[in-house]
Design goal:
Rossmann fold; single chain; globular; seven-stranded mixed β-sheet; three-stranded mixed β-sheet
């Protein structure tokens, strides 16, 4: 099965489609449809207008990295999964982009860990979305502070790491304190063998002086009572998605 997945990724990573954003893209065709993350694309595009560097944590096939580059913003793409890296590198090469690629998993410490599963649901969390713990690959790890603490300018950081976002933030306390704009995917429910970091993500960011917003059509501001309600009942209606914008007001 692993060999089949690798062969399929190799084939699809060479099939490019022209996009409305001016770059050619090889990857999951759903990413090019209007239905895929329309609010996130709009919000990130607006935030990119004020950013000097876009740090794409969990870059996957590289759509958002390519989007940021097309808008003239410097990009650092962080992606550990081998199949996703194949797509990401193909897209950078095809479009002749000057994107930094970091083939590591970002977490709370430097070292080596097991990454379970593959593609856009690969996770450092054992059992994530039902993946067998035998379906894994070893990946190097590092922290956001180690990688980017010395970067100047306004930072926009997207975090999409399938349940490991709490560990990402634990290794980014310097960047959080310094100030950046963050778009973080986090779920109140757990899809693996570890509790959800949902409460901790919001607590970390709110304690650091950030305001939180649902990445929806209105950028609905998130209150402490909403966080408690969603964490207590993950199926509660009205959450509006699993991506949240965090920023400190000027």
């Amino acid at each position: 099965m692993r060999l089949y997945r690798e062969m399929r990724a190799a084939q699809l990573a060479s099939r490019f489609t022209a996009t409305e954003f001016g770059f050619r893209f090889a990857g999951n065709p759903y990413y090019l449809t209007p239905q895929w993350e329309p609010h996130e694309k709009r919000i990130l595009s607006q935030c990119l207008a004020k950013a000097d560097l876009f740090i794409d944590v969990g870059a996957n096939h590289g759509f958002y990295s390519c989007l940021a580059d097309s808008l003239g913003v410097a990009v650092a793409a962080v992606e550990p999964e081998s199949g996703n890296l194949r797509y990401l590198k193909s897209n950078v090469l095809e479009n002749d982009l000057e994107i930094e690629i970091f083939p590591v998993a970002v977490t709370s410490r430097a070292g080596v860990m097991s990454l379970f599963g593959d593609s856009d649901t690969a996770s450092l969390v054992p059992g994530w979305t039902g993946y067998s713990t035998h379906f894994r690959q070893m990946v190097p790890t590092n922290t956001l502070d180690n990688l980017f603490a010395d970067r100047d300018g306004a930072l926009l950081i997207k975090v999409d790491v399938e349940g490991a976002e709490g560990d990402v933030l634990a290794g980014a306390l310097g960047l959080i304190k310094r100030g950046a704009t963050w778009l973080i995917e986090t779920f109140p429910e757990s899809f693996g063998d570890r509790p959800s970091p949902f409460r901790d993500v919001f607590q970390t960011m709110l304690d650091a002086g950030y305001s939180a917003y649902v990445a929806d059509d209105k950028l609905t501001e998130v209150s402490p009572s909403m966080i408690r309600a969603w964490a207590d009942d993950p199926l509660l209606a009205g959450r509006g998605g699993s991506n949240f914008l965090f920023r400190r007001e000027a």
